[in-house]
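Why run this: before we spend reagent on co-expression, it is cheaper to look at a predicted model of the complex and decide which construct boundaries make sense. The entries below are exactly what would go into the expression plan.
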Amino acid sequence: GENVEQHPSTLSVQEGDSAVIKCTYSDSASNYFPWYKQELGKRPQLIIDIRSNVGEKKDQRIAVTLNKTAKHFSLHITETQPEDSAVYFCAAGDSGYALNFGKGTSLLVTP
Amino acid sequence: ETGVTQTPRHLVMGMTNKKSLKCEQHLGHNAMYWYKQSAKKPLELMFVYNFKEQTENNSVPSRFSPECPNSSHLFLHLHTLQPEDSALYLCASSQDKARGEKLFFGSGTQLSVL
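The model came back. Tokens follow.
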């Protein structure tokens, strides 16, 4: 089955800096790669996703890149703000199967 | 609160108890999921229902028993649990189980097994 590795497990940045979280996956058939954000005590929520026919997608300060050859994808957050502090989960999936999640990255943005 | 609602929010039970977790979605979705979230581990998929039919059971012990009476409601019946079953149990829904469908999560039930 699909195995999703996520790094780093914790990340601390200063407000205004950029944050990058990386994930690798094992199943070359995976073609959908979402990112979820979970604030402390709250539910995970989708923040951005990318499909295998696209190499990069951007939504304001958040971007995701995908390298299908290398089987890795990354989340980039620019101009970080304290409200970006949360746990971020990557996931990979394929048609007919539910998603496989990474272990999560705890991001702390310090003022 | 709209979307996906889970009750109870917190549950403490002994190993010999029987309890049930409830999930209800108001989004008109056809697929519902149970996930287990433990510290330092990935979200673990437990069960998937699509159009009320169970389509996946990820080798979950029989002490966890799901029930999906209709597309809007999902239950997780618990009996003779172990302390290692303590975790946050998240329900989610999506339009259906096809590829690339956005998951909408509930707030979860924080379960403690004593």
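The radius of gyration of chain A is 13 Å. The mean pLDDT of chain A is 93. Bring this page to Monday's planning discussion.
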